[in-house]
Each structure stands twice: as C-alpha cells, then as structure tokens.
Structure to design on (454 residues):
C-alpha cells in the first residue's frame, strides 16, 4: 500500500496559479467571444476558482506553485531556487512614427482554420526575437511555437505569471479543444508521452492531461522539454485564439521552463527576455519578445531596474509605487506588483481600488466595489511607478466601452494575488519590460538608449 501511495504521488501534479486572468464577464462583451458562456469545470460541476487538493483513490496530494489564500494548507510544495537574484526592468516604449502607414499584411486580421481571428505582428529584425500576435481586442497575447518532428505550429499564450507549458491534445473532447489546433502522438515521431497526469487550476480556468517530451522551438531557439498535453479544459479557453500556454514564470511547475533550459543548454547566455506588446488600435502590431537581451529599437530613455524581493516567492513581482490619477493619490500603501502578460487587466485589493477610483469624478461601483463605471469622456491617464519612475497608461487602455454610453475601468477590485496588485496587459502595453532572471551585479548593464522619442 505504501508503494502504491508513492506511485500516485509521483504521477499526479496539481498546480494552483494566478495566471491566465482575463475577466470573463468583460471578455464576453468582446467580439472575440464565441461558444458557450457556461462556467462549468472539467467534470461538469460548477467552476471552482479555489481548490486545494485533488483526491485519487483516497490519496489527497497537491503541488502548489503559489498559494493565493493563506487558509490553503498544501500537503506537498514544489522546491524553489532561493538563490536567484532576479529583476524586472521597465523603459518607456518606442511607438511607431506618428502618421506612418502600415502595410496591408501588418493590420489585416489573419483568419485561422479554426475560425479565430488574430492580428499578426511585423516580422522582427532583432536576433532571437519573435513577433507577438494578439486577438484584436487586447485581451490575449501569444507566440507561434513549433513542436515536434514536423515543427507543428501552435499559438501559445505568453504567460509570465506561471511556469507551466501545455498544449491542447487531439483526444481532448472539451468544446474549447475542438475549437483549436492540437498536438499529439500522430504529429511527431519524437514525442514521448508519459503516464504522469497534470492538472492546473488558473484564476479563470482549469486544464488537465498528461505530461510529454518533445522538441520545442521559439524564435529560432530549439530545445527538448516537457510540457502538458491537455485532454480536458474548461469553457474559459473557448474565447481566445491560443492553443495552449507557454509558461515563462520563474516558479517551478509541473513542466520544464523554456528559458531555464535554453540557458542551461547554452542556447542563451543569459536568462533574460524582453517584451513589447502591441495595441489593436495602433497602425502596426509591433509586439515582440526578445530572448537573451533587449532590442534597443523598442524603447527610449533609461531602463529602470527593480529587484525582486524574497517575499515575491520566485514570481515576477516588484515593489510598486502608489498609482495616481490627474496628479492625485489616495494615500495607499506600497504593495508588490505582479507583472503578468497572461492577465488582461489590472487587479488590486478591493479597498485599494475603491480608494483609487474615488479620485475619479463620476466613478461608481454597482457590484460591491469590484468593477467601476467611469465617464466615457474621461481622457486623463492613470500612472504607475516602479523604482521611482512613473509610467503613464492612457485612457484608451484603462477605460473600456462596455455598452451604449457606458464605460468601465480596466482596473478591477479583485485580489488576484493576496495583498498585492497584478498588472496585466492594460499596463504592459505602455512599457518595454525586461525580465531578468540572472545574478546581476552592475544593476543596469544595458545602460540607456538616449532620451526623447525617436
């Protein structure tokens, strides 16, 4: 019996994460919504946003990537690398020249065989770089990733909020899977599928399947790594074009981490990647990820260094200054800000978000201080600060039209991470972000690119 118990513990990975955090009610106002709006879990029960254990033949185990609730008491936790000296850097983003005109292929919506529409990026000129696609509504950002012998191309959500990678599998019968491309044994002669199950509980969706190993290629960088092949998903994934999730978080997960493997195998000389996200309303989708360094053409001014404190627990999170509106602040405490490309909006503790919206004339909440209606003619930017440097988020990003003459703030009063802010794409569209997982002694090795706008 002891041997059986150990076997079960070794072949069941359950991970709780905060990543992939669009706001479903808001997303379903988008033209990208399709399929059922039912919120049912993979077993047909009402969807759970918190689950601390999973029981298999009477044995309850859990490997937790990060806890979102202090009352959770996981029975097993994943070991972490406590010696990492990581940092996040921000720079003011370099926008396309005013008045420039796009080529037709840069802006048209390219329709996939599975009927989702995506906005294709301009092909990067920088080495070890890949263009970042998006869904045309600024809700999800994803890369083209090649898998297996024949380099099957899938769209993978770019997720800095978790370290797990998975794709939709051919045997998955969930409606979301049937609406997407898949990858499995019939697509590659080198795929090695294991008997180890995995289950991931996201902030807005669940996925389960088995672990496998095969060649993975991104931005011309190729390695063999483990990833999940999903055979069950919730309906949350019906609304977005991506076929899986690429985990670029620092925390250990059920699968290998692409960035760590690339560094270990010498494909990259440094555990650094840099991200610039495009905006659907811009003339050109210039979204890009660069591995191993930065693309100096993507930002102006200095890159501001912010080290990751121990309390971030190996997540991409840095101390955050108080957000402000029209030069005013609400006297909020300094909290950690989790930097998450897999989240669509900005989330914060309800009390803090409520106090912040009191600075905005006409802002009102009708759902217990979670979402806030704001005047549609609001033009004032919101500002966030890191390392003493302030970054501006224009109204086109933080104010969303959700109905006729009705607008809501994209800053949500929901504690996605306990006692902290979670800054997703609403913020990240306005900065050039460098995720640096190496030991850093010189604090700002890339120097500056010169002030002003190019």
């Amino acid at each position: 019996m002891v041997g059986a118990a150990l076997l079960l513990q070794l072949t069941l990975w359950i991970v709780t994460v905060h990543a992939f955090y669009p706001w479903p009610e808001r997303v379903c106002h988008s033209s990208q919504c399709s399929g059922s709006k039912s919120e049912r879990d993979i077993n047909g029960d009402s969807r759970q946003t918190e689950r601390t254990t999973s029981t298999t033949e009477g044995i309850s185990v859990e490997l937790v990537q990060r806890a979102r609730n202090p009352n959770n008491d996981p029975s097993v936790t994943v070991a972490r690398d406590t010696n990492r000296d990581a940092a996040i850097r921000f720079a003011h983003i370099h926008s396309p020249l005013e008045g420039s005109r796009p080529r037709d292929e840069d802006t048209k919506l390219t329709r996939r065989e599975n009927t989702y529409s995506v906005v294709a990026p301009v092909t990067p000129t920088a080495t070890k770089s890949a263009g970042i696609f998006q869904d045309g509504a600024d809700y999800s950002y994803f890369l083209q990733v090649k898998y297996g012998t024949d380099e099957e191309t899938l769209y993978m959500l770019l997720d800095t909020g978790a370290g797990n990678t998975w794709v939709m599998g051919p045997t998955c019968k969930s409606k979301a899977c049937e609406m997407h491309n898949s990858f499995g044994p019939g697509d590659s002669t080198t795929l090695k599928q294991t008997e180890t199950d995995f289950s991931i509980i996201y902030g807005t969706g669940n996925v389960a399947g088995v672990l496998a190993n095969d060649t993975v290629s991104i931005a011309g960088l190729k390695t063999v790594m483990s990833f999940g092949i999903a055979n069950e998903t919730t309906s949350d994934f019906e609304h977005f074009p991506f076929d899986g999730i690429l985990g670029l978080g620092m925390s250990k997960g059920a699968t290998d981490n692409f960035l760590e493997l690339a560094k270990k195998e010498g494909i990259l000389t440094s555990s650094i990647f840099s991200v610039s996200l495009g905006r659907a309303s811009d003339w050109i989708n210039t979204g890009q990820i660069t591995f191993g360094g930065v693309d100096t053409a993507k930002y102006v001014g200095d890159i501001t260094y912010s080290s990751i404190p121990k309390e971030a627990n190996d997540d991409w999170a840095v101390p955050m200054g108080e957000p402000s509106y029209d030069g005013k602040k609400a006297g909020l405490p300094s909290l950690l800000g989790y930097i998450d490309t897999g989240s669509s909006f900005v989330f914060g503790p309800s009390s803090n978000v409520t106090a912040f919206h009191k600075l905005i004339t006409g802002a009102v909440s009708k759902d217990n201080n979670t979402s806030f209606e704001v005047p549609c003619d609001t033009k004032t930017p919101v500002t966030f600060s890191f390392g003493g440097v302030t970054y501006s988020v224009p109204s086109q990003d933080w104010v969303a039209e959700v109905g006729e003459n009705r607008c809501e703030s994209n800053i949500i009063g929901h504690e996605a991470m306990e006692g902290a802010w979670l800054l997703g794409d609403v913020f990240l569209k306005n900065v050039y972000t460098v995720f640096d997982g190496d030991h850093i002694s010189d604090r700002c090795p890339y120097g500056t690119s010169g002030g002003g706008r190019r």
In short: The mean pLDDT is 77. Helices lie at 2-10, 24-27, 104-107, 175-178, 258-264, 350-357, 395-398, 425-428. The domain at 306-436 is CATH 2.40.70.10 (Cathepsin D, subunit A; domain 1).
